[in-house]
Design brief:
disordered C terminus; DNA-binding; Rossmann fold; 41% helix; alpha/beta; single chain; 970 residues
Length: 970
DNA sequence: CGGAACCATTAGAGT
DNA sequence: AATGGTTCCG
């Protein structure tokens, strides 16, 4: 978006810099623009420097975008803002903790200090694995918790609960809880009984009062399912309600053992993690919080004059408190939209924004309870609504509002959640919106049919050009005329299909491939649960030790029946062709080569195959996984249901397919919201995988209890938890917000589809679904195949050491350089170059980028961008060099390897030669019949300098020297 | 209208 | 294991 004049409400935000503001920034209201303008204005109108303004966001991308926008709007350049606190919560707190928090654990009674080498773990699977290791030690050390440990099928599930408690701000000490942070664990009795009283009111029937909702929810109560102390059906009755006294007894029953257990697990896990030099993100924030509470000196030094928090609906309680501690004055501004809060499962708390004023006061008095930490007034909160929407047509905006009040179950009473809020106002002049709902048996075909119906169809016109734009003060007629001129029939990439579940997306993707309709999935994929991963796992097992399980899968794949497979396994009489293939595989040296060979053999060319190879070969810097390690890695991730991000092919004209969560923050001209099916959307929750659960109203509870009260010792369902659960209404607000988010992504047109069983959300829409007999026609869009460049050298049996190409380069040459524009500049340029080469519509932001653009547009032929290159150097010890090639330009006769360098001078030229030489040998083996040229492209002067390659022997020498050097230093 | 039995389903993903 | 819906009986 260009930078127009701010509208009135944006201007109000930009101009209001003193005091506390809650900004209701609705979808598409130019929030980023306004926030960055506000930042710029603070710099211009006060004597504040960038380090006085804290700007926190939720994602790294958002932080980077904010920084870029600020550079555009101020006199500061990227380098000057490099150290400015424009950051994610996590990155900022991690930095803080490392600088000032070495002794933070002592406040909790933990002797370990925070080491400089602290490892911050992001990968769920790894964190959980480490937690399991801790739990088995914990179980040995704590026989007194034996009864509680018995209720677990998988102790690893406790890991998520610890994370949830940390997000609430609950922090343990050796002897209890840090300050009063343990209070929420016992629950909020008043809140529970208020809810209970409401749910226990008799309903109004035609013939008098009928069962209360709570009474209805314990239908099917069978005391036999529970430990012997459970009340019978009759004892629950207090017609037509549930007996209050039974519920009170259940609520107040003794939970000391449970609380002690959770306390011990939590504090010892924290100590364990520190002793192992790592922290998870949640624990890290908790320690940063402790450090800020404990150190008035640090608060005084780093406290910021201005604090802004973006996407405030995605923060948790702990982050709210941290933000308060980081502010030196009450110049605090939180920006967000409660209607787009869809990350509750990541422990975010929508009440941070909906109850902002109340929480602000409560958290402040908590933080000031034992000493004064928050030294500014928090009683005056101004609310600024941003309501001018720059994305969607008016009819889409008004249609989307209903999503927040469609009930998810027959009994749910939603009320009017939008009462008192201001509706979004469209700025589109032309409203040509088509809003339609369709239903068919076979929803995949229905969606594909609708896509084909829409593409090139005038009645689904979208903006096909940025021109002409009417002046800001043009008359309505002129604006309408200009907008009409910009409209034209849509293409595939104007369309996005959103789904609630990945399963639906996966099915649709497969169907689209059958028809040859271009759909590109964007987002997380359960990569280890794909047929490709299972195939890879089978052959890895065959090649490694655990052959039987591998052969079973391979034989089944090959079409052998169950009986026959059993015989073959028992007799070990495997088919010759398969044995031969195994021998061939075991000869292969690299993991990448192994996987490729397996996928080639089975004709697997899907994106999953590519992603798997990329993921497994790129896992750890410096080392390659052995086959054995790969097997356990796949197994762990399969069990942990790990997802891996898959990139859609940019540059091509394809429909985007993603989950609603993945679509947050994005916009598309045409949105098809699929998957509006019973039990999919709205989604009715899942049984808790952890037998200990937390809820604000009830506190910590066990879903299962070990008891010896019956005839035999047994783990029973916990009747108290079951009863309390029944007394609380289910909450589907977040499902409705998902519906809202999905609808408000659409700029021009909005379609809904459902299959055999449309859900309540579909039925609840104010339009009727049209029945359709879908008939998609086959097309011929072939997927672009894509293989990373690898060379297989089956020689030594030793696993080669992996070395990055930069490791063989000598950094000391930079000591003599005259200038240098920082890594941020270089990264930006590379990102731009990648996007440009892939044909995305990006504009060069500076001279260097223009030089790259000119270079690329002058080249005819095929591009490979940011390609991974692996060069095995056989010998003793074996080494594999790895690197990423900026640009490979492929023509029929020659290959150009191009690497961009932003250096103003060329002191490192000889070092670049080493890097490019490695790429040379990789490409020489991939394209043996073509000439390969190496070019260093100096972006400042727009000059290409050709270099000649070094021999592999020379590269080997350099690699050996580099390994010796690094091991000698450490 | 209340109650019981039975059925189908089982998510989402930042740092 | 938990959830909401559906169906059927008294």
């Amino acid at each position: 978006m260009s930078d127009p004049t701010p509208n009135d409400n944006q201007q109000q935000l930009i101009g209001s810099t003193d005091g506390i503001y809650r900004v209701d920034a609705g979808a598409g209201t130019g929030k980023t623009f306004a926030v960055t303008r506000r930042y710029a204005r603070i710099l211009e109108t006060t004597d504040a420097a960038p380090e006085d303004i804290l700007l926190v966001t939720f994602t790294r991308n958002a932080a980077a975008e904010m920084r870029d926008r600020i550079v555009q709007q101020t006199d500061y350049d990227l380098r000057q803002l490099q150290d400015a606190p424009i950051s994610t919560f996590h990155a900022y707190c991690f930095r803080l903790l490392r600088r000032h928090g070495h002794t933070a654990p002592t406040a909790l009674g933990i002797d370990d200090q925070i080491p400089d080498s602290l490892d911050l773990i992001e990968e769920q699977a790894r964190a959980k694995q480490l937690f399991r290791r801790f739990m088995s030690r914990f179980a040995d050390d704590h026989p007194e918790h034996a009864d509680l440990l018995r209720v677990f099928y998988d102790r690893g599930t406790l890991h998520a609960l610890i994370g949830e408690l940390a997000a609430k701000g609950v922090v343990p000490t050796r002897n209890g809880w840090y300050r009063a942070t343990g209070e929420p664990l016992t629950g909020d009795r008043e809140r529970f009984f208020d809810a209970f009283t409401a749910a226990n009111q008799p309903n109004e029937g035609a013939n008098g009062p009928t069962n209360s909702d709570a009474r209805g929810a314990v239908g099917g109560w069978d005391a036999g399912e529970y430990a012997p102390d459970a009340p019978t059906r009759g004892e629950l009755h207090d017609d037509p309600r549930i007996s209050r006294s039974v519920v009170e007894d259940a609520y107040d029953a003794d939970r000391d053992a449970l609380l002690a257990f959770i306390h011990d697990v939590y504090i010892e896990y924290l100590a364990f993690a520190l002793s192992q030099n790592y922290l998870t993100q949640g624990l890290m924030l908790a320690l940063a919080f402790v450090m800020l509470c404990e150190s008035p000196g640090v608060r005084a030094r780093i406290g910021h004059e201005y604090v802004m928090v973006d996407e405030f609906q995605d923060t948790n309680e702990l982050q709210f408190k941290i933000a308060l501690l980081l502010a030196r004055t009450n110049n605090i501004c939180v920006v967000g939209d409660w209607k787009q809060s869809i990350y509750g499962f990541q422990h975010t708390s929508v009440a941070n924004i909906t109850d902002f004023g109340e929480r602000l006061q409560r958290f402040t008095s908590e933080l000031n309870a034992d000493c004064r930490r928050i030294d500014y007034a928090v009683d005056d909160v101004q609310t600024i609504p941003l309501f001018e929407n720059y994305r969607s047509s008016a009819s889409i905006l008004s249609f989307a509002e209903q999503s927040l009040s469609i009930p998810a179950t027959s009994s749910e009473d939603v009320g009017d959640p939008l009462a008192g809020t201001r509706s979004l106002e469209a700025t589109n002049a032309v409203d040509n919106a088509q809003i339609d709902a369709y239903r068919a048996d076979g929803e995949y075909d229905l969606v594909l049919d609708r896509i084909q119906h829409i593409v090139k169809n005038e009645s689904y016109a979208v903006e096909t050009s940025n021109e002409p734009q009417a002046d800001e003060d043009a008359s309505d007629e002129d604006r309408i005329a200009a907008e009409h001129e910009r409209l034209g029939p849509p293409s595939y990439d104007d369309i996005a299909v959103f789904t609630r579940t990945r399963a639906f997306a996966r099915g649709l993707l497969e169907r689209a491939e059958e028809y040859g309709i271009p759909l590109a999935y964007e987002g997380g994929v359960e990569l280890f649960d794909t047929p490709e991963a299972k195939l890879a796992l089978a052959w890895l097992r065959i090649a490694e030790s655990d052959g039987r399980r591998g052969w079973a899968v391979a034989l089944e794949r090959a079409g052998y029946g169950f009986e026959r497979t059993q015989t073959i396994l028992d007799e070990e009489s495997y088919p010759d062709a398969m044995l031969q293939f195994r021998d061939e595989l075991t000869e292969l040296e690299t993991l990448g080569g192994f996987l490729r060979r397996v996928f080639d053999r089975y004709g697997r060319t899907s994106v999953y195959a590519d992603a798997l190879v990329d993921h497994l070969t790129g896992l750890y810097d410096g080392t390659l996984l052995t086959r054995g390690e790969t097997i356990s890695y796949i197994e762990e991730n399969l069990a942990a249901e790990t997802t891996v991000e898959i990139d859609a092919n940019p540059g091509s004209d394809a429909v985007t397919l993603q989950t609603i969560h993945g679509a947050k923050g994005l916009e598309y001209p045409i949105v098809i919201l699929g998957n509006l099916n019973e039990r999919s959307f709205p989604h009715y929750g899942q049984p808790p995988s952890c037998p200990i659960v937390y809820d604000d109203a009830t506190g910590l509870r066990q879903t299962r209890m070990y008891s010896e009260a019956g005839a035999y010792p047994h783990v029973y369902r916990n009747w108290r938890h079951r009863l309390l659960q029944a007394c609380l209404p289910s909450d589907y607000d977040e499902e409705r917000r998902l519906l809202y988010v999905a609808m408000t992504r659409a700029k021009r047109h909005l379609l809904f589809t459902a299959g055999e069983e449309p859900s309540r959300f579909m039925d609840g829409l104010s339009i009727e679904a049209e029945e359709i007999d879908p008939d998609p026609t086959p097309e011929s869009h072939s997927p672009i195949d894509h293989e990373p460049f690898t060379v297989d050298v089956p020689t030594s049996r030793d696993i080669p050491t992996r070395l990055g190409v930069h490791d063989i380069m000598d950094d000391s040459v930079y000591d003599n350089r005259t200038g240098g524009r920082g890594t941020a500049f270089g990264t930006e340029l590379h990102d731009f170059a990648e996007a440009y080469a892939l044909g995305e519509s990006v504009e060069p932001a500076n001279n260097d980028q223009r030089a790259v653009a000119q270079l690329i547009s002058g080249l005819a032929g095929e591009f490979r961008v940011e390609e991974t290159a692996l060069l095995p150097l056989p010998g003793e010890p074996a080494v594999t060099l790895s690197g990423i090639i900026d640009l490979v330009h492929v023509t029929d006769t020659q290959i150009d390897v191009i690497d961009y360098k932003t250096d103003p001078d060329r002191v490192a030229h000889e070092e670049y030669r080493k890097q490019l030489s490695a790429y040379y040998h990789v490409l020489a083996s991939v394209y043996p019949d073509r000439e390969i040229r190496l070019q260093v492209f100096y972006t400042q002067t727009a000059e290409s300098v050709e270099v000649t390659p070094l021999s592999t022997d020379r590269l080997r020498e350099l690699a050996i020297a580099a390994m010796a050097g690094s091991s000698g230093e450490s």
